[in-house]
Write a structure and sequence with these properties.
The protein has 335 residues and is α+β, with helices and mostly antiparallel strands. It folds into 3 domains: 148 residues, ATPase, nucleotide binding domain (Nucleotidyltransferase, domain 5), CATH 3.30.420; 97 residues, Nucleotidyltransferase, domain 5 (2-Layer Sandwich); 69 residues, Actin, Chain A, domain 4, CATH 3.90.640. It has 11 helices and 18 strands. The strands form 5 sheets. Strands 3-2-1-9-10 form a 5-stranded mixed β-sheet, sandwiched between helices. Helix 2 packs across helix 3 and helix 4 packs across helix 10. The protein is flat.
Length: 335
């Protein structure tokens, strides 16, 4: 019997879950390619360190953007390398893969995911709705008739979904998430401080100083960028309050999407959500103060799931290993 794996193909990181084993790989969704030969030079963490620093003959690719495959060949090559690293694929064995996709992805986008994963060396590819997997991984009782709400704030997309009886009742998806916070920091420093920085620097500032509320003070940090006034390098001090101010519009947009989702939810399920609260997953849930910020804006209890970065992948794993109704969710036709 073929081995079964779950894949969380994220814009920032790709995680692979092997049935009866657990998460066996977590790697940045980045690959470096030699332009002349078209062959990979490195991938994962090594390739991510090269972003914005490569010579002309190399190209560093982030083939998944905003939850969507933007380069089929690069995605296939990256996944094949990750599967090769885990020793899951050989001449005699190809695993069955279950891959998460955004709930509002188009038919073309879903087929692109299936084709890329299949060409990377798997035998069969089935799709799983990302919010449903995140809810299972967060420990929510998705088979219960009581409504539960999950908000998965990834790198490329934010998925809001209300789940009852093992299915998504209401959902919304928007391309404002972790990477949007990075861009907001870049734009703030460009416009307000006349300093130009790259994606990796913005991400580091977000992780080190970012907060969802000015009540949380994480101090200050040094940033090295280019002075837009004279083109020279500059070493500047950035405060936690500045980062909070920079990312506030993006966070407000996420709150707006959650509010729209709640407004579209049937009254009985809304009552359940008010009683049980909203659960956050994904890398964006790690932003200090985000649960308190959303709760204050909506007037609903908000909690962060345990190990939010792993929720989606763990959710697929739980469905794979379940022998009951939870397992059947995997085999329902994707709507």
């Amino acid at each position: 019997m073929a081995r079964q794996i779950g894949i969380d193909l994220g814009s920032a990181n790709t995680l692979i879950y092997l049935k009866d084993t657990g998460i066996i790989l977590s790697s940045p969704t980045v690959i470096a390619i030699d332009k002349g030969t078209g062959k990979d030079v490195c991938f994962g963490s090594q390739a991510k360190k090269m972003l914005g620093k490569t010579p002309k003959h190399l190209r560093v690719s982030r083939p998944v953007r905003d939850g969507v495959i933007t380069d089929m060949d690069d995605t296939t090559l990256l996944i094949s390398k990750l599967l090769e690293k885990t020793e899951l694929v050989s001449f005699f064995a190809r695993p069955d893969a279950y891959v998460c996709v955004p709930c509002k992805s188009t038919e073309v986008e879903r087929r692109a995911v299936q084709a890329a994963i299949y060409e990377a060396g798997t035998r069969n590819v089935a799709l799983v709705q990302e919010p449903l997997a995140a809810a299972v991984g967060a420990g929510l009782k998705v088979l219960s008739p009581k409504g539960r709400m999950i908000v998965d704030i990834g790198e490329g997309t934010t998925e809001c979904a209300v789940i009852s009886l093992g299915e998504i009742v209401v959902s919304r998806s928007q391309k404002i998430a972790g990477s949007s916070l990075d861009r907001a920091i870049i734009n703030y420093l460009h416009n307000e401080r006349r300093i130009e920085i790259g994606e990796l620097t913005a991400e580091r500032l977000k992780i080190k100083l970012g907060t969802a509320t000015p009540k949380i003070n994480r101090g200050e940090g040094e940033v090295i960028g280019r002075n837009l006034s004279n083109g020279m390098a500059i070493n500047a001090t950035v405060t936690s309050k500045e980062i909070c101010y920079a990312i506030r519009p993006a966070l407000a947009s996420i709150v707006h999407q959650i509010r729209l989702t709640l407004e579209s939810t049937p009254p009985e399920l809304t009552s359940d959500i008010c009683n049980n609260g909203i659960v956050l997953s994904g890398g964006g849930a790690l932003l200090p103060g985000i649960a308190e910020f959303i709760s204050a804006e909506l007037g609903v209890k908000v909690m962060v799931a345990p190990k939010p970065l792993e929720c989606v992948c763990v959710g697929i794993g739980k469905m794979l290993e379940s022998e009951g109704e939870l397992n059947k969710i995997l085999f329902k036709e994707y709507q």
